[in-house]
């Protein structure tokens, strides 16, 4: 069956004053209907740029899509008309962000912002739209939705604002929700609540969910599959359980090693040495080689092709088979 979303070999450059930065260098991932895919990577790995390109909200310029394909329910979006893209946005796929304040308009009430979509896009009456907005706030567990619907974003706490943004993103019943670091700005308790809420909504609606995060710990409970990004590529993709148990790429292994473990309270974390490469000067060969404990001559010379070291596992490491075997 055709996946809900299929991103294939996506290439994006940023033309900057300092040169051309290859921000996406052949990104591929798929999301099935009703599935949660976590897209994991450090900042600058290309996770947000991929999502923005999928949504059709990439700033162009400086961003330029130089190749690849984004299909939603089998329909190519990269060559679709701006009008068609606007139709898909909101109703087909919606996106939420780390910073709810930038997504919500400060001069309108939260209710108005939900209702406006319903009136413009669905032709709903003022009254029906209000009733639906109250329902949506209730669905995202905002207490006293009838009162809250009349309030402005600044009257909401950080966590409640995040819930309001989620409600707004659900107004047109999207089949796919893309959440870009939705909990990063929140404290740990609220983070867990928002993550639970997203998982619950995903289940109830049977929606596809793309969860973008730099924190492997955050998605452990909710992801069906995980795509790990590094320097503008997906370097590993697998179902969540297998990836946690036996990573097939040294970068994933390093991310797992850096997770705090419940059975080792208080011990120092093994953080990954070095920094991700500048996208203006991606190293030859494997882009991870300057930080990789397993790097060999071949890694410095030859770009590793993405391949399947085992059924259902994808890795872009020359030695994926050995890594997978725990060697
Ligand atoms: Fe490390 Fe080489 Fe594999 Fe790259 S290809 S991840 S440098 S072992
Ligand atoms: Mg980002």
Automatic annotation (TrEMBL):
Phylogenetic lineage: Bacteria, Bacillati, Actinomycetota, Actinomycetes, Pseudonocardiales
Location of this chain's protein in the cell: Cell membrane
Membrane topology: Peripheral membrane protein
PANTHER family the UniProt entry points to: DIPEPTIDE TRANSPORT ATP-BINDING PROTEIN DPPD, OLIGOPEPTIDE TRANSPORT ATP-BINDING PROTEIN APPD
InterPro entries given in the database record: AAA+_ATPase, ABC_Ni/Peptide_Import, ABC_transporter-like_ATP-bd, ABC_transporter-like_CS, Oligopep_ABC_C, P-loop_NTPase
GO molecular function terms attached to this record: ATP binding; ATP hydrolysis activity
Record-linked SMART domains: AAA
Full protein name: Methionine ABC transporter ATP-binding protein
PROSITE patterns per UniProt: ABC_TRANSPORTER_1 (PS00211), ABC_TRANSPORTER_2 (PS50893)
Superkingdom as given in the UniProt entry: Bacteria
ABC transporter domain mapped to chain residues: 5-256
Family: Belongs to the ABC transporter superfamily.
Chief subcellular location: membrane
One record GO biological process: peptide transport
Alphabetized UniProt keyword annotations: ATP-binding, Cell membrane, Membrane, Nucleotide-binding, Transport
GO cellular component: plasma membrane
UniProt xrefs under Gene3D superfamilies: P-loop containing nucleotide triphosphate hydrolases (3.40.50.300)
């Amino acid at each position: 069956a055709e996946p809900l979303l299929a991103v294939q070999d996506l290439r994006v450059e940023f033309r900057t004053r300092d040169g051309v930065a290859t921000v996406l260098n052949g990104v591929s991932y798929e999301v099935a209907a009703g599935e949660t895919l976590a897209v994991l990577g450090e900042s600058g790995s290309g996770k947000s740029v991929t999502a923005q390109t999928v949504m059709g909200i990439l700033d162009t310029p400086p961003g330029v899509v130089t190749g690849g394909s984004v299909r939603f329910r089998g329909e190519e979006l990269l060559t679709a008309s701006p009008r068609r893209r606007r139709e898909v946005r909101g109703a087909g796929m919606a996106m939420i962000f780390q910073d709810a304040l930038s997504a919500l308009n400060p001069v309108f009430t939260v209710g108005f912002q939900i209702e406006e979509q319903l009136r413009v896009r669905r032709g709903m009456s003022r009254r029906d739209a209000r009733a639906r907005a109250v329902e949506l706030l209730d669905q995202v567990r905002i207490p006293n939705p009838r009162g809250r619907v009349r309030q402005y974003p600044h009257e909401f706490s950080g966590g409640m604002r995040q819930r309001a943004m989620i409600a707004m993103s659900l107004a047109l019943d999207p089949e796919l929700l893309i959440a870009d670091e939705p909990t990063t700005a929140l404290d740990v308790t609220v983070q867990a609540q928002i993550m639970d809420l997203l998982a619950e909504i995903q289940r109830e609606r049977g929606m596809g969910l793309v969860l973008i995060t730099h924190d492997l710990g955050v998605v452990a409970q909710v992801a069906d599959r995980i795509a790990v990004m590094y320097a503008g590529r997906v370097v590993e993709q697998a179902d969540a359980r297998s990836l946690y148990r036996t990573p097939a790429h040294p970068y994933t292994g390093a991310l797992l090693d850096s997770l705090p473990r419940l059975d080792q309270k208080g011990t120092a974390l093994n953080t990954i040495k070095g920094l991700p490469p500048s996208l203006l000067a991606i190293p030859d060969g494997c882009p991870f080689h300057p930080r990789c404990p397993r790097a060999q001559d071949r890694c410095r010379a030859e770009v590793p092709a993405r391949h399947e070291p085992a059924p259902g596992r994808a890795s872009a490491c020359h030695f994926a088979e050995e890594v997978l075997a725990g060697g």
